[in-house]
Amino acid sequence: MSNHSPLGSVGATQTAIGEELADVTKKHKRTAALRQWWNDRSRLQQWLMLLVVVALAYLLPVINPPLITTEPANDFAISCFNMALYALVALGLNVVVGQAGLLDLGYIGFFAVGAYVAALWTSSDSTFVHIPYLATLPLAMIVTVVFGIALGLPTLRLRGDYLAIVTLGFGEIIRLLATIIPGLKGNTGFQNLGRPPGTNADGEALFTASNGLPWYWLVVTIIIIVAVLLGNLERSRVGRAWIAIREDEDAAEIMGVPTFNFKLAAFGTGAAIGGLAGALMGGQVGFVNNQKFDVPTSILFLAAVVLGGRGNKVGVILGGAIVAYIPLRFTELAAYKYLIFGIVLVLLMIFRPQGLFPAKAHLLTYGSRIRRWVKKEQAPAQPEGGPPPGSAPPAPGGSTAQSTRRARKET
Prior knowledge:
Layout: H1 6-40, H2 43-63, H3 76-99, H4 108-122, H5 133-155, H6 160-180, E1 190-191, H7 212-234, H8 237-247, H9 249-254, H10 259-285, E2 287-288, H11 295-308, H12 313-329, H13 337-351, H14 367-377, H15 399-410
Antiparallel strand pairs: 1-2
Pfam families: BPD_transp_2 (PF02653)
Main location: membrane
Region (Disordered): 376-411
């Protein structure tokens, strides 16, 4: 007779499952405890800790950590600029995809419009009136907002896959227009784009294509400003409307939310940030042509948002940095980057369907303040033996006398 019984194997399986569940529960408790610890900090304490993180971010190319450096294959300061640029693009696309829930596959079109605005108004190859490079940054945002509204007005009535196909077509239309319109110079493109002013101690230009450090600092500063503005926007009526549309557009419209107007606002906001990123890219590289704005690059932008976690600003910033960093760090794998990110996204769909850093599903407006206020307002329970020591006796017409009279009436 065999020594192994079916009941014994079932018991062992149940024990293994129980241990795995216990491990998952412990990890969840640790994460929840960390989140609770952060929420319990005052606003000033949170800002001070964030300032430390920001200081480290500014010093990253200066420190050049040996474990994560991209040298000697790629200059680390320029790699940091590319990481910051992808993070800025992911922030803009997150407004459309993560906040409003609109699937945009042609975001590269807004990026291209911003780059061409910088080229047309600053390049020596352009016949347009030349203006200072820094003036092209707000101009690029304005022009891309116009393009975003022009695209959104006829197409935002669509949903899901249909909207994705239309936006994908928009990205291709921009690239084809850059090819067939003579003034945009197709493959030849524009050279010698303008750059921000400034010189170093030797009198040489500070912003050059080979010096990525000032460009990185400029983009990080812009990311901080954009993230703060988007955070305030998320906590406003507009942000709550976007979340309602993302969760259930029909329910939001029934509750009185003008969904079309808010979707158009999301499209315009995302387009402005995409155009800003495109103008920064054109200035740093100093060259713009139609080969830089293809569909695979647009898919990488979307992968950055999905990888980081849709709806989470910190998550998409890290997602954009990762998407830009991996091909630069492992240059020999750069040809397989689309395969690598495809595999990573499939694994994310299985193990982390909400991304590496999913958005927290709680009240956005003053959530931490409300939790702290509730904790302060919760009074300790009164002991059963009567009022707590040191308290004044109840008044004759107080609650105790009223309850006694009610009891007599009921009797």
